């Protein structure tokens, strides 16, 4: 097994064990054993279990961002772009249930320190802040603090994905898909009657 294969095996195993057993119940020795590597190899790649968790969190966020970024700024119509982005994000969650479960467990957890969560939100998912700013400049989205808007979007995403993972048959229903987007959109948008 090459060095990069060993690192990936550690990450894949950590993902499975953190979801199945929880962060605190998962030991570095159990990760190494399940990954088929020596414990020293794990520590060669990651200084600690916390460092492994941070790396895994950022890597999964980057994979998620890479999968959905192409949906942003496609049509020039903010609502349509937001809908395309929303459905792309939910499609990713349905296609990657283990990684989405990892998000459910750790996105808001104190296990992931705030600077790491901020890096994920502001750097990896920075294109979402750009869309929010664009909507605010156009007078379509409420002029609330960007960070608060991002966290609200993230919370709505976690709520919707939890619902669809728990009820996979509902994702195929157009009215449920549309409802999930409308809940998301109406939490941010300024009603047309109130726009300048």
UniProtKB/TrEMBL annotation:
<dbReference type="Pfam" id="PF00440">
    <property type="entry name" value="TetR_N"/>
</dbReference>
<dbReference type="InterPro" id="IPR036271">
    <property type="entry name" value="Tet_transcr_reg_TetR-rel_C_sf"/>
</dbReference>
<dbReference type="InterPro" id="IPR050109">
    <property type="entry name" value="HTH-type_TetR-like_transc_reg"/>
</dbReference>
<dbReference type="InterPro" id="IPR009057">
    <property type="entry name" value="Homeodomain-like_sf"/>
</dbReference>
<dbReference type="InterPro" id="IPR023772">
    <property type="entry name" value="DNA-bd_HTH_TetR-type_CS"/>
</dbReference>
<protein>
    <submittedName>
        <fullName>TetR family transcriptional regulator</fullName>
    </submittedName>
</protein>
<dbReference type="InterPro" id="IPR001647">
    <property type="entry name" value="HTH_TetR"/>
</dbReference>
<dbReference type="GO" id="GO:0003677">
    <property type="term" value="F:DNA binding"/>
</dbReference>
<feature type="domain" description="HTH tetR-type">
    <location>
        <begin position="4"/>
        <end position="64"/>
    </location>
</feature>
<feature type="DNA-binding region" description="H-T-H motif">
    <location>
        <begin position="27"/>
        <end position="46"/>
    </location>
</feature>
<keyword id="KW-0238">DNA-binding</keyword>
């Amino acid at each position: 097994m090459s060095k990069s294969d060993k690192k990936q095996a550690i990450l894949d195993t950590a993902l499975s064990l953190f979801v199945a057993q929880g962060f605190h119940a998962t030991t570095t020795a159990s990760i190494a054993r399940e990954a088929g590597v020596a414990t020293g190899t794990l520590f060669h790649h990651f200084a600690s279990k916390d460092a492994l968790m941070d790396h895994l969190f950022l890597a999964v966020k980057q994979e998620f961002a890479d999968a959905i970024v192409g949906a942003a700024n496609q049509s020039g119509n903010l609502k349509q772009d937001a809908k395309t982005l929303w459905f792309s994000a939910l499609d990713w969650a349905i296609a990657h249930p283990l990684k989405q479960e990892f998000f459910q467990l750790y996105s808001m957890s104190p296990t992931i320190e705030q600077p790491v969560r901020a890096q994920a939100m502001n750097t990896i998912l920075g294109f979402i802040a750009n869309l929010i700013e664009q909507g605010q400049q156009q007078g379509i989205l409420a002029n609330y603090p960007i960070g608060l808007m991002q966290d609200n979007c993230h919370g709505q995403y976690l709520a919707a994905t939890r619902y669809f993972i728990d009820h996979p048959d509902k994702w195929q229903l157009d009215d449920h898909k549309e409802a999930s987007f409308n809940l998301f959109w109406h939490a941010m948008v300024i009603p047309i009657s109130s726009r300048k």
